[in-house]
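Morning run. Coffee first, then this:
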Amino acid sequence: MPDHAPPAHIVVVGAGQAGAALVAKLRASGYGGRLTLIGEEAAPPYQRPPLSKAYLLGEIDEERLWLRSDSFWQEHDITLKLGARVLALNAKAKTVTLAGEVLSYDELVLATGAEPRRLPAAIGGDLAGVYPLRSLADIARMRAEFQPGRRLVVVGGGYIGLEAAAVARKIGLSVTVVEAAPRILGRVAAAETADYFRALHHAHGVRIIEGVGVARLAGTGRVEAVVLEDGREIAADFVVAGVGITPASALAESAGLAIENGIRTDARGRSSRPHIWAAGDCASFPLDGGQARLESVGHAIDHAELVAANLLGAAQDYHAKPWFWSDQYGCKLQIAGLNTGYDRIVRRAPPDRDAARDTGPDAGPVAGPETALSIWYYRGDRLLAVDAMNDPRAYMVGKRLIEAQKSADPALVADPASDLKLLLR
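And here it is:
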């Protein structure tokens, strides 16, 4: 513990992955002061990734999503305020206002996460049968829609949209994915990774339309069709909007905190106002000369635990170790690193695949269901990131190299006969 006295009352706004990790870390580090965790949702802190996969499929129940048992909060003397929205933040007075209550804090952490982008009401986004996919409440509203034979249109070809499409096909729905950009996964992955997932979804009967935006959603009271900008009309029993998320920074902005792609923080998690910190999806932090924001479970936990340590005087800077994953059909995608600024791609497949040939965005389908493949991103000679599809060894090696700030000879990576583990020596 630091030499100076710890804060008497720490308030954390946001009871998601970051908020839950932060308060748990504080108690595990010996913090004995008053600790309050505020969440807008009525459910206790829970994990979100299974929402669009196992939970939507009905393979796990709600309690298995919970990050901690019911007893954890009481046993660790953490005041958990659920279904509680913070209406105002007064940075000067060091208070947060809830309905019928004003809380004073010594230190405040904003772990407000992110919010789903919604389809505009002007094009029919407020029709019944149009759903975002972010929370337990979203799943509760849409679950009855997932019935065999029904027609689903997914707007957005990112990972969340593709995961929803995969679940719907497993159940037996007719699925169309509409992506306005020239290709799916355009913001987050190379064309080679997009080729893989396009082929995977085609093999499972999903129709994918790329390079055409949505003009409007048609229907009287309830969505009945999706009308594309080129005039095509796709019949729909319901629509899932997978068009990304935005940082939940409105509260911070209203209190005068600096905003830059989220709540701007320094390398230690401090906002622009004294005694206010930010952690997780809502926070941007220094990276490679700019401000970056990450959206992943791993980052939410790591960043929150660093902020917890700094609240107790650790004075540590944050060094991100990004990793992500996605499950679709029989494919497990694992991503290590950030591919921002890559200028070279190396493709690696097991020896029994045609792994040595060059591919590009116009090469067509390169994979079928459950094929192992990895895509390695370079900027110059520097390894930036790895997309590993059903290839845990490539993921493990790539992650360790990136975290050690080491690279890998592209020729060895591309050679399917080479032993990746030798790259670690």
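The radius of gyration is 23 Å. Good start to the day.
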